[in-house]
Fold this sequence. Notes:
- With 83 residues, the protein is mainly α.
- It has a single domain (8-80), classed as 434 Repressor (Amino-terminal Domain) (Orthogonal Bundle).
- The protein contains five helices and no strands.
- The chain has helices at 8-21, 26-32, 37-44, 52-61, 76-80.
Amino acid sequence: MDQITRTPKQLGTVLQRYRKATGLTQEALAARIRLRQATISALENSATNARLGTLFDTLAALNLELVVRPRSKGSTKDIEGIF
Length: 83
């Protein structure tokens, strides 16, 4: 299912949801991409200083991809209701 994210908080929630759905702990995910568990925790908790490479490594480890498209008409508050 596609997930729309517009904020770091929403992205963190999506990453956490997919990680849990795959049965991975933060530690196991971190080990897959040779990061510290604290880095995964920071991503899931809206870290705004994360490196793009770290984000893409995390997406790949969760078998996810980033899709860029024009914004839909819904507001950020409408989307936050999904989470």
